[in-house]
């Protein structure tokens, strides 16, 4: 959750459930079935190996979640989730109360668009000491770059189509903050240069969809 000792032992878990009616005959309508989920907050006490569930939040089906550790002594850690409605929900972790407080919700669907929102599949945080950004990949192969203001406002910087099928994963480079990686069901791993809005490179060596990736926080070349 965070490097602060006060927050050690807390973790969150997100769930995804496809709702099926008892009289629903076949799976061909699964794309239209409602999806629901929950966000659980737990605390693990190492001294007595005790696990306690602190909170359960009903929400849409969760596909990914990431913590942003507290970036100053005047703020709390934040948890971002992405869900099956194409939304990013942001929670603040109130350490004294040991609860998650929902702060905002952002939809990937453009307000002026009549198209159905894609599923929000994965997300990542970036904090360079001054600015906070989020990247979100979606089920239409898109990438979405957002900024989080000091006033708690989510602003869309830009969105673009990157993959031919679902963009399963995305991650900022921890050592080169202008690089964003993405992986998709089209078997492509890509690096995007956020300064030039151009693709830096494409790796085509994978024999299956790229579903998860992570830039190592301690080793630059991993």
Automatic annotation (TrEMBL):
The keyword DNA-binding does not apply. InterPro entries: Diphthine_MTase, WD40/YVTN_repeat-like_dom_sf, WD40_repeat_dom_sf. The keyword ATP-binding does not apply. Pathway: Protein modification. Keywords: Repeat, WD repeat. PANTHER family: DIPHTHINE METHYLTRANSFERASE. This is CG3184. It comes from Drosophila melanogaster.
């Amino acid at each position: 959750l965070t490097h602060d000792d006060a927050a050690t032992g807390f973790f969150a878990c997100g769930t995804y459930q496809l709702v099926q009616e008892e009289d629903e005959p076949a799976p061909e309508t699964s794309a239209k079935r409602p999806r629901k989920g929950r966000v659980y907050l737990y605390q693990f006490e190492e001294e007595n190996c005790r696990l306690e569930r602190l909170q359960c939040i009903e929400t849409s089906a969760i596909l990914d979640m990431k913590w942003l550790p507290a970036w100053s002594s005047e703020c709390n850690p934040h948890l971002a989730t992405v869900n099956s409605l194409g939304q990013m929900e942001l929670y603040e972790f109130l350490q004294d109360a040991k609860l998650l407080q929902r702060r905002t919700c952002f939809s990937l669907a453009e307000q002026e668009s009549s198209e159905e929102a894609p599923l929000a599949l994965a997300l990542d945080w970036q904090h360079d000491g001054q600015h906070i950004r989020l990247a979100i990949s979606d089920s239409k192969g898109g990438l979405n770059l957002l900024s989080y203001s000091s006033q708690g406002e989510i602003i869309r910087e830009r969105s673009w189509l990157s993959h031919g099928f679902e963009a399963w994963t995305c991650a900022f480079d921890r050592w080169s903050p202008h690089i964003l990686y993405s992986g998709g069901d089209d078997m492509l791993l890509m690096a995007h240069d956020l300064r030039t809005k151009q693709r830096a490179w494409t790796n085509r060596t994978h024999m299956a969809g790229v579903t998860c990736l992570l830039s190592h926080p301690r080793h630059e070349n991993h």
